[in-house]
Amino acid sequence: MLTDIAARVEPTPEDLVLEIGPGRGALTAPLRQRVEGLVAIEIDRDLCAHLRQRFADPPLRVLEGDVLRLDLQQLLEEEGRSTLFVVSNLPYNITAPVLFRLREHAGLVRRAVLTVQKEVAERLVSESGNRAYSQLTVFLGQCARIRLARLIPSTAFKPQPKVDSAVIDVEFLPNHVPVDDMRVFELVVKVAFSQRRKMLRNALKSLPFAEAGGTIASQDLERMAEAADIDLTHRAEDLSIGPRGGKTDGMIRWTVVCVLLCVTAVCGENYSLSFSRRSERLTWRPVFPGWNFSTPVTLSAAGDSTSMLRLNASMSMNAILDQRNGRNNWTENASIRTSVQYPILGPRASVGITANMTSRNASLLNQKTRSQTI
User: Do 138 and 186 fall within a single domain?
Assistant: First the structure.
């Protein structure tokens, strides 16, 4: 069995093979026969001493410490490699933290061959609509392709555990399913799965983007979902990971809901929205009495280190203002840049709008330019 696992480790010349939790070196031995550039990390001091003694010629680099605290970028620089190939018989109690750690560094980790609890493996490879489908499925599936390599019965281990195991092959693919704002994506997924038996119409009301008071008005959520072309009657487990395919549209699209919440905070009801399936982009057309905006706005979202969702919008527009109570009809040619900062875990939004406008009075035929910041 160990020889079979080691045979699945096929590093490139740029890969550094990192074994997590080697214990007494049962898997380390066949790995040493197959690969160069092997580094092991073990948290137990006595086991580290045992490994250094057992694999002294040539010496195996054994790091004593917690892999969750290991600086992977620094390790690669020290070893003169560019990517990691991770292999491990993961202790069941740290499987999820290690998987999330690898996900955080998907740009550094190329592949991983991992032995995990069978139940965890089934969750990772499950498809939408399956009860095993979970937060972990979505988070790993966003950045990786996961394959169930083989099952291992509990009788293969000594001492024998109470559960069966499985070997999974994880190929990390940065931007496998692109996400504009990872913090928002993670927040939406967690909220959706925290009440997984509820329809999304009810589960997503608890998103912490609402104004002080804590919930999103039902009519606002319905309007947002309609604009983003998503179905509120489904549950979180019904949503595929990708933007298309599966039983319904993908979980990624729920990031759009958060963007819509920002727009709602700024504009109230004075806007119209549309969502393009082809480009996966959202457009916003402000609606104010007497104004005709000829060009819709394309919105983009990005998070920052202060836990703020930053919504940026820019457009060039021709706006016609008919005052109707006099003879002055104004034509506005405007270039507008809008920045909205919305706290992911807070109640209020702050808005900054800078507009450079050239105005022409249709009656007086004079022109003037003004800049205004709100």
Answer: no
